[in-house]
Amino acid sequence: MTVLEQPGSSRHGSTATGDRPAPPPAWRPRVDPGPLLPDEEPYRVLGTDAAGKVDADLLKLLYEQLVRGRRYNTQATALTRQGRLAVYPSSTGQEACEVAAALVLEERDWLFPSYRDTLAAVARGLDPVQALTLLRGDWHTGYDPHEHRVAPLCTPLATQLPHAVGLAHAARLKGDDVVALAMVGDGGTSEGDFHEALNFAAVWQAPVVFLVQNNGFAISVPLAKQTAAPSLAHKAVGYGMPGRLVDGNDAPALHEVLGEAVTRARRGGGPTLVEAVTYRMEAHTNADDATRYRNDAEVETWRGHDPIALVERELAARDLLTPGFVSDTKDAAEEMAGALRARMNADPALDPMDLFAHVYAAPTGQLREQSDLLRAEIEAEGEH
Amino acid sequence: MSTAVVAGDTTATERKPATMAQALTRALRDAMAEDPAVHVMGEDVGQLGGVFRITDGLTAEFGEDRCTDTPLAEAGILGTAVGMAMYGLRPVVEMQFDAFAYPAFEQLVSHVARMRNRTRGTMPMPLTIRIPYGGGIGGVEHHSDSSEAYYMATPGLQVLAPATVADAYGMLRAAIASDDPVVFLEPKRLYWSKADWSPEEPTPVAPIGRAEVRRTGSSATLITYGPSLPVCLEAAEAARAEGWDLEVVDLRSLVPFDDETVCASVRRTGRAVVVHESTGFGGPGGEIAARITERCFHHLEAPVLRVAGFDIPYPPPMLERHHLPGVDRVLDAVARLQWEADWTEDGTGRGAGGTEGRGA
């Protein structure tokens, strides 16, 4: 955006003399783009001098959450193979992003997840079975979004981002210091809704944090075919908001960067775009074959930069990785997985008449007729 | 046309005529005054008052936070309105013109219409999406679409189209008060139509989901809504010269659809013509004709006919009069309702069962 000043009132002030036309209205950039630019390298804490400054309790909490998150991912993937989930877009390898996004929010804040972000919803406190209802297929959203302030898992890419902006804007209008954190992938940044959401957020100075998990692929399409931008974080500058580039497998770094963005938003500083550079270790879903578009060597490189191993190394360096702590963490994760497995192995109770229950506040005449038809069909089936 | 009824006592003050545009503005104003959750948002709705001036004065009265000029991005407008509704607000969105609402189509179909269902009723969408629609005002390309069929085909939306000044006020108030999303189609060529209507004593109107018989008759029923209502009322007057006494039903609400009022009328008259500007093929008339046939078959003396816009992209303004259903085209359709007891197929293939919008 530019500021145009009328000729005569501008600092170029002079009027036309002779045949020379008046100078154009003065122009200057509205904000200095310098401070909005992301770092040249993804911000890291683990393996740097800053690692020693991370609070020990936070480090242990992150470790517990990462181990639990990894176990959740392997369990959900197993449930897919057993036919208990229709599909599961795994966040294996991206657990640091999922966990950090949940941990930086207060109770009153809102999370806007995409379909790959069930782990973030679970880390925020949502019941795992309710979080997986969409992917099991017994209902679209298996939870009341108001209960944990988790918006419905969103499938159409980036379309949940303007919702986060609107909600945060509404909260601010009501005088509530609520922040919305919205999650999207690298592919989603190509969608029009990404652009419109960031633009609205910046114009309204809405208290929103956009977390882009750049995991390298949109199903099969690599980032190079998705964007020509220097980084996805650079896109922030065009909207007039800061962009932050962070190592998406470095949980303390994510916790710090996202936490700063949330605090900034809560204090009225406006939105932030955070790009977390990570990697999707599994295929897009169980229905995808990743060997068709990427090689094992690349995957192995990223396996060496595993988010759990990175935290483990720091814990070990501080003598915090005691056998008791490790086994307690593992046992808690196994307990969660066992309970999830047991509950998912039970068939969900379905009532087909629910199909008509919530199309409108009160069913229309047409829907009453159609629900009568279905009820009669079901009763006839029962008689055979 | 006027549907207002002045109170019977002699002390009633005489009302000044009001336009549909004024009634709509008043509806927004009264809704905002009554409920602080109501927020108006859109392109140019603030200082300018909207390109049709429907939001005139709202920012001055309620401030920029309540009537907001947004960036120029329809998906963003509707998408942020969804988020505002999630937090308990009651947004009223203005789409500047019918064809400019299309960028918001994904938000409308994938979120606005489905959110209540998706969340088992825990996250309703009390949103109103106002869309100036239809032709007849000399608009250049992209300013005259009749897009109602797209919205009617989307479960979860209510689709309303007022045709009178009283309905413009009453139905917009009902739309804003509704806990379900409403696509509110404002017939732009009726914005300046007048009736003696008073904002101090707004004429009560039927609820959402009810049609109204605007003219009673016995020969045949014209079924219409929005910008085609005045055309049908004029055709009904002209038909008297031909000896036809036509009934005119104003649907008002396309979704929910009032089968009861429509079918009661057709059972009385035995003949029906559906009239709308939208294209005939895949348009609302096909659904309405099918519903009548399914419910009133033994009462019908002739197939249900349609008078619709041609199946063409909306024409340039200097040609639009040939496209829009007019009085003559409506009367031609009425004439083909098999009035002769001994009617037989004439071999032209142009019999009474054709789709009148496709080249009649």
Strand order of the largest sheet of chain A: 1-2-3-7-6
Quote the average pLDDT of chain B.
92
CATH architectural designation of the largest domain in chain A: 3-Layer(aba) Sandwich
CATH class of the largest domain in chain B reads Alpha Beta
End-to-end span of chain A in angstroms? 70 Å
What's the story with the biggest beta sheet of chain A? 5 strands, parallel
C-alpha Rg of chain B (nearest Å): 21 Å
Give a quick account of the main beta sheet of chain B: strands, pairing sense, barrel closure.
7 strands, mixed
At the first level of CATH, the class of the largest domain in chain A is: Alpha Beta
Q: What is the string of SSEs of chain A from the N terminus onward?
A: HHEHHHHHEHEEEHEHEHHHH
Order of helices and strands of chain B: EHEHEHEHHEHEHEEEEHEEHEHEHH
User: Tally the helices of chain A: what do you get?
Assistant: 14
The percent range for helix content of chain B is 25-40%
CATH homology-level superfamily of the largest domain in chain B? Thiamin diphosphate (ThDP)-binding fold, Pyr/PP domains
User: Using CB atoms under 8 Å apart, which protein chain pair has the greatest interface?
Assistant: A-B, 40 and 47 residues
Side by side, the strands of the main sheet of chain B go 3-2-4-5-7-6-12
CATH topology of the largest domain in chain A: Rossmann fold
So, the CATH homologous superfamily of the largest domain in chain A? Answer: Thiamin diphosphate (ThDP)-binding fold, Pyr/PP domains
Q: How much strand of chain A? A: 5-15%
| CATH architecture label of the largest domain in chain B | 3-Layer(aba) Sandwich
Overall geometry of chain A comes to globular
Describe this structure in words.
The complex is a heterodimer of chains A (384) and B (360). Chain A has helices at residues 56-81, 95-103, 118-123, 128-131, 133-136, 145-148, 160-173, 192-204, 235-239, 251-266, 296-303, 307-317, 323-345, 365-383, and strands spanning 110-112, 180-185, 208-214, 217-218, 221-222, 243-247, 272-277. By secondary structure, chain A is α/β, with parallel strands linked by helices. Chain A folds into two domains: 1-30, no CATH class; 36-345, 3-Layer(aba) Sandwich (Rossmann fold). In chain A, helix 1 (56-81) packs across helix 2 and helix 1 (56-81) packs antiparallel against helix 12. Chain A is globular, with a radius of gyration of 25 Å. Chain A starts with 55 loop residues before the first helix and ends with a helix. The model of chain A is unreliable at 1-13 (pLDDT under 50). By secondary structure, chain B is of the alpha/beta class. Chain B has two domains: 17-196, Rossmann fold; 212-335, Rossmann fold (3-Layer(aba) Sandwich), CATH 3.40.50. Chain B is 31% helix and 18% strand. Chain B has helices at residues 20-34, 58-62, 74-86, 105-112, 115-118, 148-152, 165-177, 229-239, 259-269, 284-296, 320-323, 327-335, and strands at 17-19, 38-42, 67-69, 90-94, 128-133, 158-160, 182-187, 194-196, 212-215, 220-224, 246-250, 253-255, 272-279, 305-309. In chain B, strand 6, helix 7 and strand 7 (182-187) form a beta-alpha-beta unit. In chain B, helix 1 (20-34) runs parallel beside helix 7 (165-177), helix 3 packs parallel to helix 4 and helix 9 packs across helix 10. The two termini of chain B are 28 Å apart. Residues 1-12 and 351-360 of chain B have low confidence and may be disordered. The chains are: A alpha/beta (384), B alpha/beta (360). The A-B interface holds A 139-141, 144-146, 151-152, 156, 159, 161-171, 173-174, 180, 192-193, 196-197, 199-200, 203, 354, 357-361, 364-366 and B 39, 65, 70-71, 73, 75-76, 78-89, 103, 106-107, 110-111, 114-124, 155-156, 158, 178-180, 209, 255-257, 259-260.
